[in-house]
Amino acid sequence: MGELINFFVRNHVFFIFILFEFLCFYILGTQNSYHRASAMSSSNAISGALYKVTNSISDYAGLKDVNKELANENARLREYLTNKELSFINRVDTLVDSVYVTIDSVLAKGYVYTSAKVINNTTHSLYNYITLDKGSKDGFKKDMGLVSTNGVVGIIKTVSKNYSSAMSLINKNIKLTAKIRHKKFTGSISWNGESAQYGQLDEIPNHANIEISDTITTSGYSAIFPENFMIGTIEDFELKEGSNFYDIKVKLATDFYTLRYVDGVENLNRSELIELEELAIKR
Amino acid sequence: MTAFQIINAIAIIAIQVLILDNVELHRLVKPLLYPLIILTLPLFIPRSLVLVIALVLGLIIDISNDSLGLHAAACVFLAYIRYIILMLLEPRNGYDQYVLPTYKNLGFSWFLKYASISILLFNTFFFFVEAFSFRFLDTILLKIILSTLTCLFLMILYQMLFTRLKSRY
Q1: Of A273, B33, B104, B115, whose CB is crowded by the most CB atoms within 10 A?
Q2: Do the Cβ atoms of A159 and A43 come closer than 8 Å?
Q3: Topology, domain B3-168
Q4: Percent of chain B scoring above 90 in pLDDT
Q5: How many domains does chain A have?
Q6: Given an 8 Å threshold on Cβ–Cβ distance, is A28 in contact with B70?
Q7: Is A193 on the interface with B (CB under 8 A)?
Q8: Mind listing the pLDDT tens digit for each residue in A192-227?
């Protein structure tokens, strides 16, 4: 017994090393299964506040691009309004910085958009996250969608009172259902960890008639994003011999290098939809 | 550890988190400076203390990077192999007990040997854990080599600027 204790004392450095590595790999493992403790992510109060300060300094440099983006979006919205009949919209309540739009019951889906500022954004990791300056007090929730003026950005994963942290579309853990516009085939979008400009689309069957520069949009199945939201365009595709599915390379519409303002999308009927689907599975 | 070293460590963490983590040179290059803190810890502090410092440092970097556990695992690994590398590179007449292992104190070629072996092993560990597979072996190997070179450059640059500043006092 004495010898055993002696052995541990003599090699204590090695055992501490093993213990620490075990600890690190343990938290690394739990993190990937979406159970990230919000206190230990960048949405916590301290790093959130720190990012806000550094962001306010670097903000001025990007004002020109932001203005241009906003002007473009204005133009697009105006076009949308003139094309669509205004009678579609029953009610437009303007909150402080969010627009509440309930669309006619024919469409039966209500989405709330809340704009937020990106205060931290990584593009070089395999698991990229985005930190936003809005949190639960602004109505942000877990599993809300995130879009920019150009397209889909990611999904919110942890929320604190003032900040939230979202899994970016360029994160190896993300999987979204997507469809090819006008062709009705649905597949799933994921990211292979290489370039922040390209994603990949899987599960498109080999009889689908696809072409380069076809538009990929959200499918509307997931209850996170509304239907027909831009994700990207087909850059390249191939059909491996003997495979039933295409390998499709998608050029993402969102530029993750210059992301500044995003909108959180909340589906007001999400809980109802999920309840209903769970009920159907139980039956 | 003197107060001066603690301020130095905070400065390195600030540069890493506020500047280098936001710089994207290339997708194969990850500019890391913070391993310098572990490398330049005093030579004769207990090895278990080095491991504890490395774990805390790694977790600080992880929290700001949303990569919980990844940097910490690599830091603890570096802290463990640091002693072995120091033993291998020990000069013939031994280390002076009170010096820090910087390039100014122990010579440029000694530091380059010490840092390049340490950082190469550190980056190898880091990028394989990050990818968690051997699938993109060529990309990972390129990442290791290019990031190691960038890291060495940054560490020497930091020490150059730093020692020049110090001599003014």
Answers
A1: B115
A2: yes
A3: Arp2/3 complex 21 kDa subunit ARPC3 (1.10.1760)
A4: 25
A5: 2
A6: yes
A7: yes
A8: 888 888 998 988 888 888 888 888 988 878 778 888
A105–chain B nearest CA distance, Å: 41
Question: Domain containing A180 — which CATH number?
Answer: 2.40.10.350
**pLDDT for the residue A93:** 44
Sequence-distant (≥ 6) Cβ neighbours of residue A100 within 8 angstroms: A91, A92, A93, A94, A112
Taking CB atoms and an 8 Å limit, are A24 and B58 in contact across chains? yes
The answer to whether the CB atoms of B76 and A36 lie below 8 A apart is no
Range of the domain at A6: 2-32
Tell me the residues of B at the A interface, defined by beta carbons under 8 Å apart: 18, 21, 24, 27, 30, 47-48, 51-52, 54-55, 58, 63-70, 72-73, 76-77, 79-80, 83, 129-131, 136, 139
- B21/A122 CB distance under 8 A: yes
ipTM (interface predicted TM): 0.81
Q: Is A199 left (phi over 0), alpha (psi -120 to 50) or beta?
A: beta
- Are both A211 and A246 inside the same structural domain? yes
pTM, two decimals, is 0.58
Residue B164 has pLDDT above 80, yes or no: no
Collapsing DSSP to helix, strand or coil, A92 comes out as: strand
Among A188, A195, A194, residue whose Cα is nearest residue A248: A188
- Cross-strand bridge partners of residue A180: A216
> Which residue ranges of chain A lie beneath pLDDT 70?
31-47, 60-61, 75-76, 78-109
The pLDDT tens digits for B64-119 are 877 778 899 999 999 999 989 988 888 777 777 667 777 777 788 888 989 999 99
The Cα diameter of chain B in Å comes to 52
